[in-house]
């Protein structure tokens, strides 16, 4: 079969999912004919994706989150204001037309939508009849047994609305999950394992003497520097999304900042003592795979739900700040936890995805 990928390009999670799935489909004789990636004007597509996807890539403008003035969390007001401007709305119109024309020219047998809203809106608006599958952890929000999105107030309601809108036009929804659950046929939700990149599954983990962190929101940098200056004996390696920073910068005696580097990050992940993260789905899964305890510091409602879900598995603790003293205490007192069940769940991904994406379609869209 011929598949077209349409990918929400904010962050790295959906991009790594696409790389993993492309490899699975090709191993079973299928073809990825193209990748359309929605992104904001301020973000650059990572080189690792362009190098590894193995298909023509085209970018288009897509709605994105806007951070607060401290660059620590999502601002709903700024997000709505930015995305509703006349220039952005005109850009989104062009994006939907691009999606339509590429589907017509590439003639795929099926479309894989990695949680890109404009792809779903274009499918509905132009009444495109090509089967489409939606893939994302967010689709669990509509599952009858998924409890972590309940009691989340107005922001939770907005997130669920966004997930329902992104589901529009999809024949089936594949909800990536930390654990096996029963499917929800009424909502067309199939519960599937995480799609982790092969590089993340390589190598043996060891318990090093340093803490690893990944910081998308650079507003936390000063906070971490102050703590490390007061605790020079604690070694911290922090990866951050700072394009103009040096590849490596020793900011304090025990603190080293690293510009994002996929292979180096995975090496540090395998060998760290514990991991600090804003609770992006893929990053949490990689830490769980290698049995690394976490401190989860969510920046917005979706990450708060991820953090609650991961913490319920015993994977780590939740915090509002980079409280390294609390995390160091947690690491000292935490017992050893096995990652065997999670590894088996991840290992079953190819079987699940190939079966679901190649079967005959039984409905006409969510």
Gist?
The chain has 366 residues and is α/β, with parallel strands linked by helices.
Description:
This protein has helices at residues 13-27, 47-52, 76-83, 86-106, 117-125, 153-167, 221-230, 262-271, 281-289, 301-312, 324-333, 340-347, 349-357; strands at residues 2-8, 31-39, 57-61, 110-114, 132-135, 172-176, 189-192, 210-215, 235-240, 248-250, 255-259, 274-277, 294-296, 316-318. The protein has 2 domains: 2-193 and 348-357, Rossmann fold (3-Layer(aba) Sandwich); 199-343, Glycogen Phosphorylase B (Rossmann fold, 3-Layer(aba) Sandwich). 39% of the residues lie in helices and 19% in strands. It has a 7-stranded parallel sheet, sandwiched between helices. A 7-stranded mixed sheet has the order 10-11-9-8-12-13-14, sandwiched between helices. Strand 13, helix 10 and strand 14 (316-318) form a beta-alpha-beta unit. It is globular and about 60 Å long. The protein is α/β, with parallel strands linked by helices. Helix 4 crosses helix 5 and helix 5 crosses helix 6.
